[in-house]
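Quick start: read one record
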Amino acid sequence: MTKNTKNLVSQDVSKLLTLPGSYTKPKPNTSFSVGDTHGNAIVLIRYLYEAGIINIDQEQYNELIKIYDVDSISRLSQLTRIQCDQFRQIIIKGFADAHVPEGIHLRCFGDMFADRGSNDILSLIILDELRKRFPDQRGTILISNHDKSLLSNYLSGNLRPGQKLNLEVQPCSSLIRLKSLIDNNIISYAEFDAMMKTAYLPALKFVDYVRTEDGGIDIMAHAPITPDIINKAMQQLLPSDQHLDIYASVDNIALILDKLNTVFVTGLSEPTSILYKALTSKPSSSNPINAFIWTRLEEIKKSPPIEMPKYKVRFRHGHDGEPGKTIIHDIAYIGYNSILGKTTPQQWGHAAVAHLTMSYIESNTQTQNQAFNEVIATHMDPTIIIDEDAEASIEIKPDEKSSPSSPAVVLEHIDENELISFQSVATLRLNAYIKARGSYTDTETGDKLWTAIADGRNMVRGLFGAQLKDVPQVPLAKQLKQTINAMTASNFEKMWPEIKEGLDTLVTQLPKSKEYTSVITTIVQDFNNSPLNEALATANNSKQTL
């Protein structure tokens, strides 16, 4: 059976405030896989538009962004009932105007709710109208660490008016604002409950998979996992008479994955079940679903080599890492996570790089069983689209921007577009860190005060043996952002080694600032993986030759 595997996005989509060209109808029996939305309803809309599942024009898109932005900053929701209804009407028309054939499957890798986005009601409205318009369309949402926070509060009754949320994960702003709408009766609990039962819960899965033409299997979960993690879940969640050797054959592991999904779906409505208790309890290493929603690639790298299955297996995941392929213990991990959903539409207008982490598999037949015959004939990587806008961030002052240099002073081996792209990704990473780490004021005094409070809190936790949390380094992040964006092709050769040396020093000097050191380590890795690194090495080699 011939398959045609492609990257989904063929146009430049990084100018995210502008829809690319005209609507394109999807082909029958196409399976779309999309990365984490991080509670960002506009990112979900954009995925649907790129897939051809929704058809809206620029004016409608602008209105959706305008409504989404109402709750971008405030802690509690400022949305009105009228705005929610306006949002819904645009979505209804967009789905009605789309020409969606049979056999379309949309798979989301999670973090759709209870994250840093605007308001979860908007994502729920989209899923609700999607289900109403296309009731036969297959949709899959993989359970994730942020979605678990929504689910846990929902199952525990904490989202009912007057009840208190249990915020087990941060950031969780989109859920907080949803609760504000319910408490103020802008959205009734009955309406919310109906959307959960008809649009969200039916699509929710524990894990997903597709068989491949070479006799192997691609396994999907929100977090990167391993065969050992699946084997442990089998031991914890299934009766012993249903246990199989998952390393022996694809049939065995596929059957176990099916059984785990059955236990998961059944457990959603059985308060006495192990799964229900796992979903409503706090994250912990003993929680049987924890590894499927929290595992990081670094944990897998540091773990002992796993027992290798007797068949080919790949893991596709969101949650962690960069979009693309990583090999760990001889197993391929295909990442769909991206920073796009972690940013706001205001930032999109000034970003030179955007990640739409999507892929699709297009079939030439309309009669296949999509659940088992969705196959991958060639290597499939998530798409990374690069724009060439010279302005990296609205927060960069005019005298700090990179300006085009004359040919006489530009380093011969440097591609200015690559430099701009690197600066833009670094800017988005640092902006996300600054926003998430408590920069409640725009003053240096305020930042220092917040850092001191966090440091004191960590000391108290340390006295009780608690794991130290991150000490915010917002002033350093702001300064680093300015420094990186001051680089040009003419000064890059001198500035970057100095910047890197300073960052390497900070990693050792700030043992308690783990989140910030992770950000700067990632920025250095971005550079090392970019053509800039090779260009710098080439320039240095040329000097040595001279």
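The chain has two domains: 3-386, 398-545.
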